Amino acid sequence: MINTPNVLSLFRILLVPLIMVVLFTKPKFIGQEWIGLGLFLLASVTDFLDGFLARRRKQITRLGQILDPAADKILTSAAFISLVELNPRVVPAWIVAAIIAREFAVTSLRSFAASEGRVIPAAGWGKLKTSLQIVTISLLIIYNELGEFRHLAPISLWVTAAVTVWSGIDYFLRFGRQLLRGEGPPVVRS
């Protein structure tokens, strides 16, 4: 079912190529990083809005439950991979690989849970991870514009990597064993 929250998730996915074009355009133009940041933040705001509207309007759909997290993963993965290309000295590929691996691992766990008729809810560590990823990607996009505060971007990346990996471990510790034993997260009711 297509509704406003699902349209916002689709819009987020469609913004990804535009963000990449802006970030990779050569020759560089004045304000390029700021335009890229604005587009990334616009996409990030749609992540909040689609969930908020779906809950408020009671428009939670199966399509939305698949589309929203997919849009999140596409946006953050594309952004992190692009940042490796743009500044590999500041954004090491191995850190981005660890972040993306966590995303795939938790998505796989959630898919397994769904196949068992169960839902794994978003946890506090996962929400913190998402917020930190948005802040970190934002700082890395405008890294060259930060001047004396440039050191904040790599520090933020390391903190984000640690919280991201920990949140993945937390999901598996809390839900993985329960699912393998046939217990755990609530059963989906249709």
Explain this structure to me?
With 190 residues, this protein is mostly helical. The chain has one domain: CDP-alcohol phosphotransferase transmembrane (TM) domain (Four Helix Bundle (Hemerythrin (Met), subunit A)). It has helices at residues 4-24, 32-56, 62-86, 93-115, 124-141, 152-180. The longest helix is centred in the C-terminal third of the chain and has 29 residues, at 152-180. The model has no long low-confidence stretch (mean pLDDT 89).
How many E strands? 0
Reading off the top of the CATH hierarchy, the class is best stated as Mainly Alpha
Give the overall form: globular
Backbone structural class = mainly alpha
Determine the N-to-C terminus distance: 15 Å
CATH architecture: Up-down Bundle
Summarize the helix and strand pattern as letters.
HHHHHH
Total of helices = 6
- Main sheet summary: none
User: Could you tell me the radius of gyration in angstroms?
Assistant: 18 Å
Assign the CATH topology.
Answer: Four Helix Bundle (Hemerythrin (Met), subunit A)
Low-confidence stretches: none
Question: What's a concise summary of this model?
Answer:
The chain has about 190 residues and is an all-alpha fold.
Descriptive keywords:
190 residues, 0% strand, Four Helix Bundle (Hemerythrin (Met), subunit A), mainly alpha, 6 helices, globular
